[in-house]
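note to self — DONT lose this again. spent like an hour looking for the file last time. sequence + predicted structure for the chain T wanted, 174 res
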Amino acid sequence: MYFGNIKPFSIENGPGVRVSLFVSGCTHHCPGCFSADTWDFQYGAPFTEETEGKILEMLQPEYITGLTILGGDPGEPVNQAALLPLLRRIKKELPTKNIWVYSGYLYEAFLPGGTAYCDASEEFLRLCDVMVDGPFIEAEKDRLLAFRGSGNQRIIDLEKTRKTGTVTEILWEA
């Protein structure tokens, strides 16, 4: 897996001060995407153990709420599998930090039979706390929406969704 950027201090991609990892690779190619350069699966630099270590270090301070992974699309099956070691380490070493993931795929696509489903999907979803799902739709762009770019996108509480078996959205006021 490649990544395009790591922002050590981000407030726009989830609550609190976060570390944001922009992975490379996206097949959605949404018109109006703010990071179209990350569509290429080999954009940026290779994601290495050293990169993983730097992210863990950036997450250490108490004022950092968690990690947000976006891109590109971390939900691309090849990216899901590549992200598992990082997600596992965060949950083990920094269990108070939450993990948000943005994907152009709908949540349902990560379930068996879905277009994003792969061998890594169940663990990937289990290790993430919140998913902002759905493609960016330029006609539904709204700058007043908290933590999402267009009105079709959902902010999903993954733990509650697992427990209830029904997608549980988090409603956020801007």
